[in-house]
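hey so u asked for the seq, here:
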Amino acid sequence: QVQLVESGGGLVQPGGSLRLSCTASGSILSINAMDWSRQAPGKQRELVAAFTSGGSTNYAESVKGRFTISRDNAENTVYLQMNSLKPEDTAVYYCNAMIRGVSDTYVRGYWGQGTQVTVSS
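ran it, structure tokens below
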């Protein structure tokens, strides 16, 4: 069974930094993509950062220049470094991945339970 587990959320003051981690575990055959999205109260979930199929990165306009996505393929882990945090970054952050597990017939989407990020003074 495949699981995604996020960590690193918390309460931070405006201007501060946090680093989120997400590790995929279980019986995994392949990982095609891993990215981060977020959902603030009363708002739709939005994609925050992702790797393209060519290996470059895409970011939401609201986080460009402040957030950086990176990955450790050997550890099946993706990170989100968040700097210069603003109150509007407050949300539950989710890790998403396209994975084929041993029990999967094809690649399918998985997501974690989410980690709360609160930016407040």
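The radius of gyration is 14 Å. DSSP finds no helices and eleven strands in the chain.
lmk if thats what u needed
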